[in-house]
Amino acid sequence: MSGRLSVIGLGPGDPAAITAEAVAALKSAQALYGYAGYLDRLPPQSGQQRFASGNGEEATRAAAALGHAVAGADIALISGGDPGVFAMAAAVCEQIDAGPAAWRALEVRIVPGITAMLAVAARVGAPLGHDFCAISLSDNLKPWSVVERRLDAAAGAGFVLALYNPISRARPWQLGAAIERLRGHLPETTPVVFGRAIGRPDERVVVTTLQTADPAAADMATLIIVGSTQTRLVARSGQAPLVYTPRSFAAVRA
Amino acid sequence: MSGRLSVIGLGPGDPAAITAEAVAALKSAQALYGYAGYLDRLPPQSGQQRFASGNGEEATRAAAALGHAVAGADIALISGGDPGVFAMAAAVCEQIDAGPAAWRALEVRIVPGITAMLAVAARVGAPLGHDFCAISLSDNLKPWSVVERRLDAAAGAGFVLALYNPISRARPWQLGAAIERLRGHLPETTPVVFGRAIGRPDERVVVTTLQTADPAAADMATLIIVGSTQTRLVARSGQAPLVYTPRSFAAVRA
Predict the structure, then answer these.
(1) End-to-end CA distance of chain B, in Å?
(2) In whole angstroms, what is the distance from residue B206 CA to residue B193 CA?
(3) Is CATH 3.40.630.10 correct for B117-244?
(4) CA triplet B82, B218, B54: central angle to 5 degrees?
(5) Is B14 within 8 Å of B83 (Cβ atoms)?
(6) Do residues B42 and B26 lie in contact, with contact meaning Cβ atoms separated by under 8 Å?
């Protein structure tokens, strides 16, 4: 009996934001592996095993799921957002790259999900409507100097920025340093969006500017979008402003 | 009666890759507006009007959908992939920004979808597993010099690149020029992925290198991922190689 590993994107947390393909893959799996906080979002299913692990245990979680699948089981490894964006798919590939030959024969299927930047962008308009970059602010796995160089390059060349992993107990100053650095490239009025837990009861979205952006408003689950010089704010009657980046480099205004 | 406009992401084309929220929004709408090729993907629904338009008519399509919704109807404007990534959400925001005051009072809801780069990445592993940029190669709405500057900045700073809108009848040389330019920044062996129509009968995915990447292998619907110096290829027994970018800047190999 040959096994299979499905790496499944749960999206931002709202069950309605999961694809039908992901729902089917979750249902057919004999066992689920995942971060405890993500597993808690899924209703228990009779006969389906669950293996919860903590934050920061991505490598051992991926290896355990691979080992179980290669023994002949249909295994699901769950991921927040999209598995391919700062999430479990790369951890699985790293394990396959370094692991036993049998892991390179296993059927591995990645099931995409709505990654945080798409969910946050949708809530405010279209801030990612033009060229953009996604950067992880975590310096656990890369030197901070690399983050700085990428912030400079992206902001300097006119990309909108989506900042993942902005802050944690062990990384308290990085988001503040990133915002300060971006102030050297972009006008004070540049729109900035903080968004977390989109579609969940504890959803929070704040639209601010680069001048007033407060790192303390972010937690581990927050995704931050920093506009380019082209990004615009549209005030609206009786509702939150729209934030969008026009499709054209210098949009013609009516 | 107050209307509403939902801007809905259909994902890469496979009906199983649409979210439940998008399915519900499509069902409740009194009328659908969209590019004819995307409308054709959706089964007709009794009593629901359809307004198809051609490629390149985004501004007039967005304005027509806004005008219809503001008259008191529940309108869905459909978009391939995710509406916020080089798609209809920015076109709608541009129209609201420039249009009559009533449009700024309308309820507008963006329903995210799986954008092409996530779908293509999932098919091959995790090429977007580390910092990446999304760039449109279309120079219809921005000067080509801006595209060049962004390719230089992104590749030079170690971002993986996702290239949207690579080629069309009116833009035959841009992808070739972009690939040639990236050869000046990255090794010949850098993994490159061409992917189109993920989950549809005419899906096609090709894994190649920067040296051998052939612009003629792309069409309008192709998304191209160009790795960074960190992106790796893992040969596998009996299946296509994995392509991934490790989570750490200089991954420790076992």
Answers:
(1) 64
(2) 6
(3) no
(4) 55
(5) no
(6) yes
Report helix, strand or coil for B124.
helix
The class (CATH top level) of B4-114 is alpha beta
Contact B110 A92 (CB under 8 A): no
Q: How far is A91 from chain B (nearest CA, A)?
A: 7
Supply the pLDDT for residue B250: 66
Which amino acid belongs to residue B32? L
Contact B101, B132 (CB under 8 A): no
Instruction: Please indicate whether residue A80 or residue A252 has the higher confidence score (pLDDT).
Output: A80
* Per-residue pLDDT tens over the stretch B66-79: 999 999 999 999 99
pLDDT above 70: residue B252: no
Name, in order, each residue with C-beta under 8 angstroms of A61's C-beta and a sequence gap of 6 or more.
A33, A34, A35, A51, A53, A77, A88, A91
Give the residue among A98, A111, A24 at the shortest CA–CA distance from A66: A98
The token pair that represents A87 in the structure block: 């999430």
Percentages of chain A per state (helix, strand, coil), in multiples of 5 = 30, 30, 40
User: What proportions of chain B, in percent to the nearest 5, are helix, strand and coil?
Assistant: 30, 30, 40
CB contact under 8 A, A121 and B238: no
Q: Can you give A211-228 as a three-state secondary structure string?
A: CCCCHHHCCCCEEEEECC
Listed by start position, the domains of chain B span 4-114, 117-244
Does B1 contact chain A (CB < 8 Å)?
A: no
Sign of CA dihedral B59, B65, B69, B75: negative
pLDDT at B249: 75
Q: Do A146 and B158 touch (CB under 8 A)?
A: yes
By C-alpha distance, which of B224, B226, B228 is closest to B249? B228
Query: Any long-range contacts for A184-188 (C-beta under 8 Å, 24+ apart)?
Result: A185/A151, A185/A152, A185/A155, A185/A156, A186/A155, A186/A210, A186/A226, A186/A227, A186/A228, A186/A229, A187/A229
Q: What is the DSSP letter of B105?
A: T
Query: Does the CB of A145 have a partner CB in chain B at under 8 Å?
Result: no
Token reading at B15: 């009906």
Residue in A with minimal Cα distance to B254? A98
In angstroms and rounded to an integer, the radius of gyration of the C-alpha atoms of chain B is 20
CA–CA gap between residue A150 and residue A172 (Å, rounded):
20
Chain segment A157-189, per-residue pLDDT in tens: 999 999 999 999 999 999 999 999 999 999 999
Q: Which two tokens stand for residue A251?
A: 């949009």
Q: How confident is the model at residue A1 (pLDDT cuts 50, 70, 90)?
A: low
Q: Which long-range contacts (CB under 8 A, 24 or more apart) does B177-181 make?
A: B177/B144, B178/B137, B178/B147, B178/B151, B179/B210, B179/B213, B179/B215, B179/B226, B181/B148, B181/B151, B181/B152
pTM here is 0.97
Q: Do A85 and B156 touch (CB under 8 A)?
A: no
